[in-house]
Design a protein that fits this description.
Blueprint: E1 16-19, E2 23-27, E3 37-41, H1 53-74, E4 78-82, E5 98-103
Antiparallel strand pairs: 1-2, 2-3, 3-5, 4-5
């Protein structure tokens, strides 16, 4: 996908909830839970592994800031944090983005296993 067609290179301003010089925090257009936020490098990069060390640091700083804001505002009980890297892992927008998904007790009947439950048959620890 060319950068000029990328939805994360120029997100709608009303979805931006935080920023650093190199990273934006935007509300997910199709949120899994209230407050679901994407952290997106401003520079078009497909893979997390293309980021510079400065981008990594700013990504971590903004992740902590947005998490703190969500804790203060919405008081979730936990978070899922994840990146889909490549089509086989479910990446649909070819611009790296980190999902910060607030979780609440009861939003799923049995959340044990978290991201491991992508493959339910591999999460044999739970009934």
């Amino acid at each position: 996908m060319p950068a000029d067609a990328c939805p994360f290179c120029s997100p709608p301003p009303e979805r931006i909830v935080g920023r650093t010089a190199r990273v934006l925090a935007i509300r997910d257009a199709f949120p899994l839970t209230a407050g679901h936020t994407l952290l997106v490098p401003r520079r078009h990069a497909v893979s997390l592994f293309e980021l510079t060390m400065v981008e990594w640091v700013e990504l971590g700083q903004l992740l902590a800031e947005i998490r703190a804001a969500l804790l203060a505002d919405q008081k979730p009980d936990g978070f899922n944090i994840g990146v889909n890297e490549g089509a086989a892992a479910g990446q649909t927008v070819r611009h790296v983005h980190l999902h910060l998904i607030p979780r609440r007790v009861g939003d799923q009947p049995d959340p044990r296993g978290g991201v491991r439950r992508i493959f339910p048959d591999k999460a044999r620890d739970w009934p």
